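Data deposition worksheet. Section B asks for the primary sequence of the deposited chain exactly as it was used as input, without tags or linkers unless they were present during the calculation. Section C holds the resulting structure in token form. Section D is free text for depositor observations; keep each observation to a single sentence. Incomplete worksheets are returned to the depositor.
Section A, Depositor: J.P.
Section B:
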Amino acid sequence: MALTSASRTLLFDIHNQRWDEGLLELFDVPSEVMPEIVATSGVVATIAIEQLAGVPLAALAGDQQAATFGQACFSPGEVKNTYGTGCFIVMNTGNSAVASHNRLLTTVAWRLDGRSQVAGDERPVAAAGPHGDIEYALEGSIFTAGAVVQWLRDGLGIIRQAGDVEQLASSVPDSGGVILVPAFTGLGAPHWDPYARGTILGLSRGTTAAHIARAALEGIAFQVADVLDALRDDSGLALSELRVDGGAASNDLLMQHQADLLGVRVVRPAVTETTALGAAFLAGLAVGLWPDLAALSDLWRAERSFEPQMAESQRAELRHSWTRAVERSMGWLEG
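Section C:
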């Protein structure tokens, strides 16, 4: 029997950190075929390939968990968002596996083994976070983010390359009342409507390519704001800032609008390859290169912060218009 990564995930009990015996029995999966469960940060094996012989394999993590660790989101309520083709927003919830009422994913953020295992060294390492060695997270995924910029380039042809979108969108002071819901393949969190489709509302004779480009960027930020609302509602935790990475995080106009819609600071790190950085942090922690999470927090650096500048009344008006537009995009294929 071949087990995919997804099936292995579905069979794992995140609360007790073991394979779920009831599910294994239900799906007729022998427990003997399941892999050993190991820590996210901890020496798993020693590499035997000649060129790397003796090097410890000391970190195993999913890309979003690694990115969250690379963003030094070590305390409950700290959140990162990766702006790629889609968006992946992860909030640290500490040692509590929070059940989502907004259909977000409850997942393990990481598990630290709390020991150095270099060359047989078993001395304790102060690696564990403030809530023990297992940290949980809530995650919300958005289907279309940077992909909407690709559509502006390849579908509409209003920009020649993705990097041109910021200059075009910045040539107008606002979207001119245009709202673009980029539900090209449905809507992800927190709406989860596969029947939704892309919608552009508020067009007039005065609408230009620049207004559509600006509305496209704003559509990314609106979707992220919806997920952040769901995260705060589920967790009961306040949001003090949003740490960002991914290709679209380099767009200053998008980051400023994101801060305006959220009403909190948006922080872009000096190192935006946070998945790779997080994997390095996890491995280095396991072998004693760094003593604890505080040392890693000291290494994290911000490149730029975007402070909210929008009045609350304007923010509420824009969010209301966005909600109306989303409602019109939903269920389109069913109608």
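Section D:
The chain has one domain: 63-334.
The CA atoms of residues 9 and 19 lie 9 Å apart.
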